[in-house]
Amino acid sequence: MPTVRDFKRYSYQPARIDRCGRDVGSKVYWKLYAIENTIRVAIHSVLTAQFGPAWWTLAVGAKITSRAAGFRASYTRRPQNANPGSSDIYLVFLTDLTEIIRANANVFTPVIPDIDNWIATLDAIRVPRNLVGHMNFPNSYDRLQIETAYTQLPKLIGNLNVNRVPILMPS
Known about the structure:
This protein has helices at residues 14-51, 55-59, 62-76, 94-103, 105-108, 115-133, 140-151, 153-162. The protein is an all-alpha fold. It has one domain (29-162). The longest helix has 38 residues, at 14-51. The protein is globular. The model has no long low-confidence stretch (mean pLDDT 96).
């Protein structure tokens, strides 16, 4: 299969844009989707086990809570669009998820001993995630950061299983 290169480096051709989109979608985007949503599940599971179902109000700072409320209001004004779910955790960014973990690291550490490594890993994919999320073409370094985070997901979930934390889906 030929190497796909960033369409922005060449003259405009719709086929080049299509190739880039298919490449990013099939090799990168789905991994970011899996990473972010697995992180949401891990956060929800650990904080529910620690604080109960109302963990959001106990463990999330005002800035993130306010941002989520703003997004919730935006979705409420557009009921014709898909609903992201009733849990506010679906309304926040990767940086917010990382901050929730960082702010509650003392709760995560007994369950996920390498939580500091996870914080560093999530910080490392922040820029590549934003590149892809804003429809830009990631380079090989960006792809490696995403791949590294993705391949660590089974270990993250394994820590929950080993420590008997029920894996709970946010609603």
